[in-house]
Design brief:
By secondary structure, the chain is an alpha/beta fold. 27% of the residues lie in helices and 28% in strands. Strands 3, 5, 6, 9, 10, 17 and 18 form a 7-stranded mixed sheet that branches. Strands 13-12-11-14-15-16 form a 6-stranded parallel sheet, with helices on both faces. It is globular.
Length: 345
Amino acid sequence: MKETMMRALVKSAPGPDGLKLEQVSVPKPAGDQLLVRVRACAICGTDVHIRRDEYLHYPPVTLGHEFFGDVVEVGAQAAGFAVGDQVTAMTATSTCGQCPACKSGYLMRCEQRRSVGSGFNGAMADYIVIPASICYRIPDNHRDQNYMAVCEPMSCAAHLVFDQCEIRGGDVVVVMGPGALGQAAAQMAKAAGAFVIVSGVPKDQERLDLAMENGADACCADPEALKELVLKHNPYGADVVLECSGAVPALKSAIEICRRGGQIGQLGLFGRPIEFPMDQLVMKEIRLNVSMGSSHQSWQRLMTLFAQNAVHADKLVSAVFPLERWEEAFAMAESGSGYRIVLVP
């Protein structure tokens, strides 16, 4: 490869102005790494928080962990990939490899984990080096599509649905919050064979319409009417509630609408200590399943679903910007409008 320099969006100093587009050296892949030409990288809330110094990071570091791209060089010990493959990746770039979490494929639980885009240079750049062991090949039917940059958040939804919760065919599942994670969780629950209801508030109607377009069975924009809708489909309450909004009222509503002996899957983060009716949770014997990140198992399931065209990510990308217009892209991401904003180097 002839190129020796590249562009990278680097967080090198405190404050929002500490994030700048810089010229840096193209990295060299170590023995077990792939050198990937980045096709697209989505802006996650984590990236916004790193820019504001609200999330742990190790500067100077290139941001970006939701990406896909083309393999252009393969390290000598990197198995299973070839030049020309299109790949995406888990975020757990470095782990101990010895703890029970690592040995069982749940790398996000490793206490020594460091992630791409915060602990190691990320994908808001022309190139990235990434361990082959955490990469996944893009299915042929989804090559060259910018929306494949959102595989990582979709893998988090797959982890919630398939690893952390137990959903059976015919279960009534309520997804609370029709944002990007909620949209993905609804599709995963549908793939698991559930009857899926997606809930939000009146301003979410357009997002609820998208959930229906992507396979949800019902939606509700009125929190006051949600319980009645649930009871219409299961007189005992929802079998599983997937809380993806990080809103305290939504968690309280989840406890209310969940049947006795049911499950709540908590994916949304609240960002602060909260109060909720634990006694009600206990009295109804509701199992609270929390979910953080993804696993090798959830990534394998996600890639299979993409190969089968059983899930869709195209409408989870709201806007695409060239890398040099990163400030406009971050402003849109910070505004909370739309779903994922994507940068294209």
